[in-house]
Structure formats: C-alpha cells, structure tokens
Design brief:
The longest helix has about 55 residues, at about 10-65. The chain has 2 helices and 7 strands, in the order αβββββββα. The chain is of the alpha+beta class. It has a 4-stranded antiparallel beta sheet. β6 and β7 (about 140-145) form a beta hairpin. The protein has one domain (about 10-150). InterPro entries: N_methyl_site (IPR012902).
C-alpha cells in the first residue's frame, strides 16, 4: 500500500473556507474602522467650527453687543441647501467676510439668513445665540451678556 502525501480535497476546501471567513472578517473590521474614523473626523470639524464661532461671537457680543451703532448685526448666519447637504456660513458683517463655513448636520432646517444674537425678553443686554451645530442638526443655544452696557449703562 502506498502512503498518501499532501492534503485531501476535503481538507483543502475546509482550509479555503476558513481563510475566506478570516479575510471577510478582516475586511469588515477595516470598513467599520474607516466608517468610525470618518464619523469622528466629521464630529471634530463640527466641534472645531462651534468652538471657533462661539469664541468670536462671545467676545464681540460681550464688548459691543449684537448690533452696531447703525442697528446692523455684527454677525449673520446664512444657510443654503445644495445637492445633498446644507452649507452654513457665519458672516462677520463688520469686516464683510465669512468667519466660518460648516456643513449643518442632517435634520437641521436649511435656507436661512438671520442675525446672530437676539435680545432675550426684557433684558436688553442679554443676547441669545442659536447655531445649528448640535447632534443631528439640533440647535446649540447659549446666552451672552453685553458687559460694557452693564458696567457703563449711560453710554
């Protein structure tokens, strides 16, 4: 009787199936990692836009209020829908240039052109700022007090 060398057809097929399963698993792991990276990168860009915008808006509103001497707002939020997204630009009206442009998240209402910083109730020196940079397009709302008007009310 001759002794058989090598693997049988069944062993080769089982090894190939195991190899294919391992390759598919590695591919799925790569795709899920890539998807997570893209989501994290998108959230990072949104967070960066929010922090930058809030820092500039807060500094201006605390020093000068939301409107200049002629009654024009210092900042305007302009959002326009495009093919598959909503692009928003925060305009610095005193310098006549965009401060930051960002993609509003899904769920945000698009097509708006409004001043940033509205007076809150009976407090003329407190402004409410609303930016569509929250999760799922929700508005991030915060309040800023015009400090100069509080400390020097007769000016």
């Amino acid at each position: 009787m001759e002794r058989q060398n090598g693997f049988t057809l069944t062993e080769m097929m089982v090894a190939m199936v195991v190899g294919v399963i391992i390759v598919i698993g590695a591919g799925q792991l790569f795709l899920s990692t890539l998807h997570t990276f893209r989501q994290t990168e998108s959230l990072g860009r949104q967070q960066e836009a929010l922090i930058f915008s809030v820092a500039h808006i807060t500094a201006t509103l605390q020093r000068h209020g939301a409107y200049d001497a002629t009654g024009e707002p210092y900042y305007r939020l302009q959002c326009v829908p495009s093919a598959s997204e909503c692009r928003c630009t925060l305009q610095d009206m005193s310098r006549a240039q965009p401060l930051v442009t960002f993609q509003a998240a899904e769920g945000a209402s698009c097509a708006r052109d409004e001043p940033v910083g509205t007076v809150v109730g009976q407090a003329p020196d407190v402004y409410q700022v609303v930016l569509p940079l929250g999760p799922s397009g929700q508005a991030v709302t915060f309040h800023v007090t015009h400090r100069e008007a509080l400390f020097h009310p007769d000016e």
